[in-house]
Structures are given as structure tokens and as C-alpha cells.
Amino acid sequence: MEAQYDVAKNCLFSKTRTVSRYITNLYTDGLKEVGLTPVQYSMLTAIQVLEEANINGLASALKMDRTTINRNLKPLVRDGLVFINESIDRRERLISITKEGIELYQKGYASWQKAQSDFKDILGEEKRDEMTKLLDEVIAVIGKK
User: Any idea which fold 3-143 has?
Assistant: First the structure.
């Protein structure tokens, strides 16, 4: 088999990027009505789960670099959805979600649920559940490396 046909048929990078773009568009369309991007919604989720995190903790939880975290935090801070304050030792900036951030997050939850449901309707519940399980397994294996 020639290289280009092998790559076109079997490339995990291309396949995952294609699926990622499709899923991103699904969530982008849904969250647009509350003015958040899927990345921002994920960040608000992580900030709440972590309760209070510094930039490094958030970057680690979301598997993003610090530059991407900072870039995506700027509009959340500007819009009053998160607050960055100093920690006790004044060397770490701690990130917390504001009351306004929680309220917008809750409004966005219905949009998130709809995107989840739309994807289930397209793929089928069984395939969606299999995909979720496989992704969890891949993330667990990659996370150990």
C-alpha cells in the first residue's frame, strides 16, 4: 500500500481531529447562547471541581499549557466570571469562580446537556457510551506516561 493511502485510511491523528472538530462545533453552537466557548465552559467546570486552583493546577487538570490557560482566563476575568487573587504566600495566584460565573455556568448547563443529547442521538446511546469508556481508558493510559 502506498504511504498516502495508508495515512488517509489509518491515521489516528486525522481521525481524532475530525471527530474533535465535529464535537467542538456541536458544543460551540450550544454554548453560544450563553456567550461561552467549550474551552471556557470546561475551565469553569475545572475551577469548580478544584474549588480553588492556581494556574499550574488548572493547566494540569485540563492538560493545557499555562499560556493557553492565561489566554482563556482573560475574558472570564474581564466578564467577572472568575476572580484571580493572591494566595497566602503571595507567589501563587488563585483562581475562583464568582457568583456571576456560577449563574452563567448553570445557564450553560442546559446547552451542555443538549449537546450531549444531540451527540447521543447522532451516534446512538450504546456507541456514545462505548466511545466515552474508550476515551476514559485512553486518557488513563496516556496520563500514566
Answer: Arc Repressor Mutant, subunit A (1.10.10)
